[in-house]
């Protein structure tokens, strides 16, 4: 197949008839269109191909001073004029002048590595080739020039007037070193879907072809080894053997950016939290948690605070969270009531996206929360060596997972323990005050509606892997939780939990050993400049 400016057109020329020949010549002029800063531009280029087994091939057009060397394209299997940027010209006449193309005789010089070279001539008549003979350009409606789209793209366009008289359209996408061929589309078709594409710049190409009859005469032997010239690789029915295929093409380029919709998940949790301060007391919380890669800011809009977005805190790689704390269940349900919630996201390019979901809070009642864990050992406000084994009891019938969270100065750690777990070894405490949270949860089915795109770039809301089996992939995972919270002062093995005045040897007790240390340094004076040499050991 032939590729003109990166567009594979061999597929659609099959409909005109196809016969492969060992030796063929193709004389193609392509008109290229593109949009730059809102302005349409066009240029012309020559694609001249010779398919022949040879070491070198050169071509001389009628008014050219000398032969032009051609390069072998191993991918396409033919010799061609090396396409470089300088071979594009703003007008057709400038292209003809640059290559010496006019009415008259063209010559091919072919060296097969023998003692003699073969020379062939053919005559051309360029009078039928004018700007008006080229097919028109399509109007691409999606994507527009410079637009950013998701990885799965549906390309749409409007065919030009008179397209029924031409071959095409053909389509393709070029991205880096990769090319995706859409092939030939039936007349009237104006849509092609392709994906997924990689993130980054890409080029959508499409166009139409016009096979021009009568421009080139057949190949005539001049000297050297005789070559049998067959039909061109892509020739319509009735094309004469030995006659170069001549065609005009119009190719439209649309540059666009691919930004794959990031996969994201969201959870929406109602909590009751029990802690101790001269007796048990409860608080009520709502936690919104969003996991999404490569973003800059995530915030949430509550119906109780219209117009005020609450920014989520970044807590770990790709994860953002916010916790709303209330002193009573009624206060929580007044603030977090039924209505429309919005998630507002800025990515790293500061593009904005807004999604909404509907919340029905009526299933959330105080008596539907799971029971707290009980009988936690060691109890709250205890000393805890590192590591420490904790145990607890579960209410009859609770078969859910246990969330174990450690809150400390350096952040927090969380792990989900299997159902029916009643003990765990905690080795992540810091040698200071820490908080241990043991959490029971249950799914609150039906609390949240699906995520609905409102504006900005697209996001693939995918809850898979983080929610119970059967949960809808586009619905925020909503659950009820009961958090038992206890405080512990953690110590390393052998470390003193408290500093005792008089514990000079730091063995966590005051004894005669400390008196021996005091006696050894009795009346030693380490003040001033004339001090005992023994003082230097305490620097």
Q: What does this molecule look like?
A:
Strands 3, 4, 7, 8, 9, 13, 15, 16, 18 and 20 form a 10-stranded mixed sheet that branches. Strand 21 (263-276) and strand 22 (280-291) form a beta hairpin. The chain starts with a strand and ends in a 19-residue tail after the last helix. The protein is mainly beta. The protein is 5% helix and 47% strand.
Features:
single chain, 539 residues, mainly beta, Immunoglobulin-like, 3 domains, 10-stranded mixed β-sheet, 4 helices, 38 strands, 47% strand, elongated, disordered N terminus
The portion of residues forming beta strands comes to over 45%
Q: Mean pLDDT across all residues, rounded? A: 85
Uncertain runs:
1-20
Dominant shape: elongated
Our count of domains comes out at 3
Q: Could you tell me the radius of gyration in angstroms?
A: 39 Å
Backbone structural class: mainly beta
The residue fraction in helices comes out at: under 10%
Q: Helical segment tally?
A: 4
**Biggest sheet, open or closed, and with what strands and sense?**
10 strands, mixed
Kindly report how far apart the N and C termini lie: 84 Å
Number-wise, the strands total 38
